Amino acid sequence: MVPAISTGIEGKQTVHRAEAKREAVYFTVDYTDSEASVPAPDREGDLDRARDGTVRTLKGTIDEEVHLSIEAFPGRQLRARGDSPFGPIVYRSRTYVVGTRFYGVIVTYPVRAPEPEDRVNSFLSSFRLLHDGHAGPPAGMQK
């Protein structure tokens, strides 16, 4: 699986993204940087807004949401269903706020497909922060 790497503008922020597809399953890692570190009380609010934006974009519903963390940084795990140009999809993600950076680790696949639970869990749980506070590539995204 060779990732496609891109950088683009979404809203007012630059999004750096790596994507790969295996069969009908899409694996994505992205991050955005903000100008100033997000104050701790606002991190949960930012995670709420990210979740709400995702659900709105998908025109979907949340099946499950779990508060989690990576090291001492807050995050969310989300399972949702929604629409895509190719039909109904399942959206699974983990998002984290780390200082000035917002990370997303995302898997999407068609509702009609058998759930690739092992691959999804392996990919989502493979995300790690390096010692300098930046992320290393999740499983399957290494060159």
CATH class: Alpha Beta
Distance between the termini: 9 Å
Strand order of the largest sheet: 1-2-3-7-6-5-4
Total discrete domains:
1
Structural class, by secondary structure, is alpha+beta
Q: What is the CATH homologous superfamily assignment?
A: Mog1/PsbP, alpha/beta/alpha sandwich
List the quaternary state of the chains.
Answer: single chain
Element-by-element helix/strand order? EEEHEEEEHEE
What spatial form do the alpha-carbon principal axes imply? globular
Main β sheet profile: 7 strands, antiparallel
- The CATH architecture comes to 3-Layer(aba) Sandwich
Number of helices: 2
| Total count of strands | 9
Poorly predicted runs are: none
Question: Which range best describes the helical content: under 10%, 10-25%, 25-40%, 40-55%, 55-70% or over 70%?
Answer: 10-25%
Rg: 15 Å
Strand content: over 45%
What's this entry about, in short?
The chain has 143 residues and is α+β, with helices and mostly antiparallel strands. 20% of the residues lie in helices and 52% in strands.
List keywords for this structure.
single chain; about 140 residues; alpha+beta; Protein Transport Mog1p, Chain A; seven-stranded antiparallel beta sheet; 2 helices; 9 strands; globular
